[in-house]
Amino acid sequence: MGEPYISVIVPAHDRRKYLLGAVNSVLSQNFPRHLYEILVVKNFRDEAIDSKLQGWGVVNLYSDHRGLGAKIVEALEVARG
User: Fold this and answer.
1) Contacts of 44 (CB under 8 A, 6+ apart)
2) Beta sheet of 59-62, edge-to-edge order
């Protein structure tokens, strides 16, 4: 498997309720999974959510930053696509 061509960044700030649905929406697209990566950057840790993200092969990042821009920059620092 080569490097992904696309990095999908999903920022979340106190949005536990919607996060898994948002990631599942990305995973449900009709696009080969080996061509993209998903990076979630969030300001909380949640054992159930983190476990699900790991099982889906999602990069899970924790951020203390409150602003959306700072969260996106953090994800871009580890993005491969």
Assistant:
1) 12, 14, 16, 62
2) 6-12, 36-42, 59-62
Q: Give 2's pLDDT tier (boundaries 50, 70, 90).
A: low
Global model pTM greater than 0.85: yes
Span 51-69, pLDDT tens digits: 999 999 999 999 988 888 8
Phi, psi of 76 (to 5 degrees): -65, -30
| CA dist., res. 60 & res. 71, Å (int) | 12
Nearest by Cα to 37 from 13, 67, 18, 61 = 61
Q: Distance between CA atoms of 31 and 34, rounded to whole angstroms?
A: 9
Both tokens of 19, joined, read 């996060």
